[in-house]
Amino acid sequence: MKIGIFTDSYSPYTSGVVRSIQTFKEELIFLGHDVFVFAPSYKNCNNESRVFRFASIPSLTNREFTLAVPFSLRLKPIIQDLQLDLIHVHSPFLLGRLGAKYARKEGIPLVFTYHTLYEEYVHYVPFARSLTKELAQKVSRDFCNQCDLVIVPTAIIGDYLQKIGVKANISKVPTGIKIDQFQNADKAWLRQHFNIGPQMKILLFVGRLGQEKNIGLLLESFSLVNVEINQTILVLVGGGPEEEELRIEANRLGIGERVVFTGTLPPEEVANCYAGSDLFVFSSISETQGIVIAEAKAAGLPVVAVGAYGVSEMVEHGVDGYLTEPDPLQLAEYICHVLRCDSLRQQMSIRARHNAIKLSSANCTAQLVKCYTGLLGSDKDDSTYL
Questions:
Q1: What CATH class does 179-358 carry?
Q2: Which residues contact 50 (CB under 8 A, 6 or more apart)?
Q3: Which of 123, 124, 250, 278 could cross-link with 61 by S-S, CB 3.0 to 4.6 Å?
Q4: If you write DSSP's letter for every residue of 69-102 in order, what string do you get?
Q5: pTM for the full predicted model
């Protein structure tokens, strides 16, 4: 197959969406498919074969993110020359809409992956936030209903889309991970690199330091954990607009010396952080999936997470971790429970590794290919995400 991917974010920008696109792209190419990416340009981005970059401008609310200008005189002849079999878009905005336009022009199937609960990100819009939240749902609904197939990473997100009025076919295809990257990492790296003593229990968070990740709740919870179990440390892996505010909050709570901000790390060092930690903690209430939870489980980390949206399908409560309400006290109680019981943590670690295999990139890509061939063949069917 020849697949055109239109996305409003791509490398070198880092995010769960970018990671998803890159993972599926690599697996699809490995299987012999041709993949062409249409994406924004960024400062110092490398020239890659089969990646078409659009002129872009920096976002006002996130200087690392750029907004593509969805126009190019070269695009039409390129699309016609490629003779794509289908177009897969990863946003209902800018380049997503451009991809939809060319799918209609070329008379080929249009697939859309709903990665993001857009109404949970309206804090990046500096005006009319209540109106923007309603508008975000309308944009999602209307765009989904233009598509031949909508991909969701978890069934709960499929339920959500149907609830807001999406009538298009919906299929559940999680983003997979490369299991080996997280099972063969350096367990000593994290403690050595950040001078963390062997007696300390390490709680790990990986993700963007943005308001939507609800990290303030995690800091409040960790302050309670730190009172109960003194030899604990919280490592926050990632960068983002809230970093300075979170540092101030950690100091206000009296845990500033027990919170490590690593900044953005390359993938191999992130894997080392998973390998060197004792427990993964996650407080976000805006995830459609939560890829980092799958990565943590592949590294053998039990997970304690707020059970909101897609995260609720990523953790088996009482098996490979615990799900909590968005309550700092309950989150702290489960964290302390796991940290105090070595045998429980070891059992959960074994189960976490086993359960992560279901989310291998090869398995998830096989599901995606089945969706593609269903659209291109005669075996179109109804929603299959349940």
A1: alpha beta
A2: 34, 35, 36, 37
A3: 124
A4: ----TTHHHHHHHHT-SEEEES-SSHHHHHHHHH
A5: 0.88
